[in-house]
UniProtKB/TrEMBL annotation:
Protein name (record): ABC-type uncharacterized transport system domain-containing protein
Pfam families noted in UniProt: ABC_transp_aux
Keyword list, A-Z: Membrane, Transmembrane, Transmembrane helix
Transmembrane regions: 68-91, 493-512
UniProt-listed InterPro entries: ABC_transp_unknown (IPR019196), Class_I_gatase-like (IPR029062)
Residues covered by the ABC-type uncharacterised transport system domain: 215-450
Amino acid sequence: MRATHVTRVLGPFGLLLLLSSPLTLLLTSGSVALAAGKAVLGAAMLAVYLAAHRKELGRAGTRRTGRFLASSVLTTLAVLGVLVALNVLAFRKNQRWDLTRERIFSLAPQTVQMLAGLKEKAHALALVPPTHPSYGELEELFRRYHEAAPERFDYAFVDPRREPTLAAKYQLKDGQTLVVISRGEGDSAPHTTLPVPAEQELTNALLQLGATGAQKVYFLEGHGEWSLEKAGDGLTELRRQLLREGYRPEPLNLLGRKEVPRDAGLVVIAGAKQDYTAPEVAALRGYLGEGGRLLYFTDANTEDGLGLFLADYGVQVDEGVAADPQFNSGNPFVLVSNFYGKHAITRPLQDRGLNVQLPTPRSFTLIREGFLLPGVTVEPVLLSSPYAWVESRPLEDTTPSSGEKMGQLTLVAAASRDTRAAEHKRFDEARLVVVGDSELILDPNWGYEANRNLVMNALGWASHQVEKITLRPPDRETSTLELSEDQMRTLRFVSTDLLPLSLLGVGLAVWLSRRNR
């Protein structure tokens, strides 16, 4: 390439750099050093261009050359003007897209639904100094809540070191932080305090503030059921989730009781491995007969003596283990399903396209007539694929055999019955959800998003809390790259200033070179 060609490229580049340096200072970067560097570099490029083409410029008085130079300058200014306009428009109409796999920069449907249902305005007061490592992340979280519901949620940040009165009010020591969440106006408004919260903690705090009263959930024990208190192979994560959403989980042994306590909002049978006694079954039958709510989780190779009780509500537990040769996670007895019924419990999961995973589940046969009580309605909630079967000898065989039930199996079902005429009515309608696998509620499996939402939605449906049939904030593994303010400024300068100018400069140089031939 000849020197004259190089210097012709330097001219447009230099003019763009020189004219855009004020924009670097005022819009894209704010850095005096970068703006000055662009101006100096642009002036140097122009100087080289002028020195190399002084003879041409000396003849600039001719009509053709004058028109050419004038059109070149006007074109450069027009291109620069378009660039400025695009940057201003992008700044004012700042559209964001969350392309992360876990959607870590988007609010969960549960949060959006909760914000839309707020009856009183919610306010978050963050007693967090600007130097705190979580300040930026917390401010971004609050901003998303406010943008989703600007009339229902607002927030403020206060440096506790500068407001000793507030620090004393909330008993903050030096270096401590706190977030105060309130609903309503005035000092008497209900409020709660949190450490620096993630989305799930903030959403659950707002839900609990709006709850009229926590529903007591009794987990039956005494028959080998999974423990609420035992970590590891227990239900401590489920218990924590229940507390977050306003439930009050407690253990209950029916031995020696004639009825389920009257304050029971829900009863859960979580993987019983021994038979319930006749008086215990009678207590459960009386509870549902008065409009009770029950979640029943069974397991493979277990007997609990509740067969006739479940048959009253149109459910028969199949003998054996459900298996699927195609829709599994590598083992035919670990089923993966996105075959949903038309029930409200799984509608949010179906809309998102989530897959539920059940390790060694049992299936159910739904009874439409005969044993079931009058007025019972039973529906499938989650099914297997059409290729499944019930394996009666899972330790000996992993293929279907003659006489074994085959086809699409019901893995989760829901039943209801009108109980408004019951003598000692608890609720207007009895509700029962049966799940073919209790292992999905154990601590090691609780992090699986689809399973967690399936269980919590079943609780919400059984307890007539429609707002709790949703998708909760996932347990996100946030793999973000932390950048300093200087690094962010440099990144913004390169992406919104230097790179677009370079592309425009190259295009302008090519156009001028061809025009000058």
